[in-house]
Amino acid sequence: MVSGNLFHYRKNSWPPEEYINRTTLQLLDFDSAAPPEQALRRKLNSHASILKEFSITFTEALKMKAPIDPFTRESCKPSASQGVPLGGMGSGSISRGFRGEFRHFQILPGTCETSPMMANQFSIFISREGGNKKFASVLSPGRHEGLGKSSDHGISSWGWNLNGQHSTYHALFPRAWTIYDGEPDPELKISCRQISPFIPHNYRESSLPTAVFVYTLVNTGKDRAKNSIGGISHLSGDHVNEPFMTAKDNPPVTYAIAACETQNVTVSVLPCFGLNEGSCITAKDMWGKMVQDGHFDRENFSKGPSMPSSPGDTHCAAVSASTWVEPHGKCTVAFSVSWSSPKVKFCKGKSYHRRYTKYYGTSEMAAKDLVHDSLTKYMLWEEEIEKWQNPILKDDRLPEWYKFTLFNELYFLVAGGTVWIEKPKTEARVVHRSAVTVKEATINGYDTSVDVDPIESNELASRKSPDDLRCRQVSISGGCRIHNVVYVHDVHFSRVFCASRAVPQNRAQYSATAKAVLFEDTRKVKFLAEGNWGIRKVKGAVPHDLGTHDPWHEMNAYNIHDTSRWKDLNPKFVLQVYRDFAATGDFSSGADVWPSVCAAIEYMDQFDRDNDGLIENDGFPDQTYDAWTVHGISAYCGSLWLAALQAGAAMAVQLGDEAFAEKCKGKLVKAKAVFEEKLWNGSYFNYDSGSSSNSKSIQADQLAGQWYMAASGLPDLFDDHKIRRAPENL
């Protein structure tokens, strides 16, 4: 193993004076209201960088059909505006930008409302005792595009006057803080703390579609201040608003907003108001009521449901929490937002229930119970989150950038379109679809279409009943313009380490992949880049993804290249399996996936055409960098193959398969010598062994296999000099 300090850049990248006043932090230093120093930070008045876009020709666009749609444009330009998403894993998610806007609603599979919904806002209304000073402001800076004139009856009439110059956003997944340092009231310090139930090792709470917003108010003035904070939400068409807002869609989605009433905090609601002038109560009326009274009428609680809206109309609801804060006093107000979409339905008609329904049932109205439970449990959630994060945050050996990156990159487990379902046990079978035969293998008597519950899999060693195998967790990629592709294997390879720290028993993803290795789908598919035809899924090949229209049964939605000929997918699968077992120390359950590991390694023999133990690339983009042509031996795929052989041998020894261990070791010895001879140029490993203009290029991923060896506790693939020398040339 390479020894020495992994980190050489130790300087803090965020000087404190650049983001928040130290006195303000001290005033908020109670009840977790002050953000950790290690959180990512941004000023609220900073503007998100608009990301550059590239264009393609019409001819190119015609060739790029599903899963990439070049004609469909996002409704808003892509930008670095995201913040920490709301909710737990697999229940749909809502993102919240660093400036306070709610956006990227990914509740239903295959759909994502990317544009901010500007009617969804927190606002504050402040009046000082004696009535000399009043402030009313949406807690999001600046006037946004499309708001119209302030004289309108819609949200344009609200107070969009927050500057944001003295306010900052702090992100440390799964929490975020927004500090309003004297805005809009110069004598009031406000902390808004956003909490989602992503809790390592607690798989029940981590499946819940809910988030809590805790407002901490510190009055630095001499007069008593009355503060009313309002949470406002809206949906369009065919829904009924009650104090808990309900939406009907296909499949149904219900939203709920609530605030916690205490001895010092009074809660009131406005069950329904509209954004148009013809509404009975308009957005302008709502704002005026809050400016004047600081609360809604208590009688609203007993009014019952409002009239259903018409398609195209927008109905809104608001919840207000009011409190007095004494001079130099403090107060806390908590809100909760929840949603319930119990059913997941995919394009080919299959439906599943999300995992949280195991605890809250399948009614859409579960959102009401979720907001209640969130407001009573969030402090316990925070305790567990802090126990998890503090050992890293307080480790002086680690640089600041590493700490916030380590946690914030976990956002994808929530906001990547993750689906976590509760699936009943089915029988192992051979499925006949017209003239196509889809073969599903059976491992140890368990149906390959059912995955181990990642939460309860640690108990399965003593409970091997098939009825215990009920749940599966998958991820739907939201990147690369690939529409709703479930669990992109080659990308997951890079992010698995962070995820494994939080959910070490989460084996559902590679478990599903293991079963897919022994699965064959002979339906014909045309591969767009080369124009050739092949079968959708070859037995022995690791799939690129687990499907989109019919996940787990119709794999490889990606059809640009024939991924059965890719050279990195099979090694990556072997490495992920080994890394997981090495991390958990539970090699006993490795027997369940061992047939697939062996099949994945043996499948690669066909690409070793000169019997030197090393695989060769085929002169097309046959790996995850699917626009880069590779010829002969490559640094990227070759190093992954060497690592897979070493991991396969180590796992074989652990499982008592000495014959396979010796086979892998023999290949490794031959292959490693050839790899170094043909690619090492004295400074780094060449891109490939071909004769193209790119062959001597430097690829950042040239040591991908070595990286996995170091992370998995296996011996180095190369000597220390080469490992250290290669990155210096990047």
UniProtKB/TrEMBL annotation:
InterPro entries: 6-hairpin_glycosidase_sf, 6hp_glycosidase-like_sf, GH116_catalytic, GH116_N, Non-lysos_glucosylceramidase. Residues 83-381 form the Glycosyl-hydrolase family 116 N-terminal domain. Residues 490-726 form the Glycosyl-hydrolase family 116 catalytic region domain. Pfam families: DUF608, Glyco_hydr_116N. This is NLGase. The lineage of its organism: Eukaryota, Viridiplantae, Streptophyta, Embryophyta, Tracheophyta.
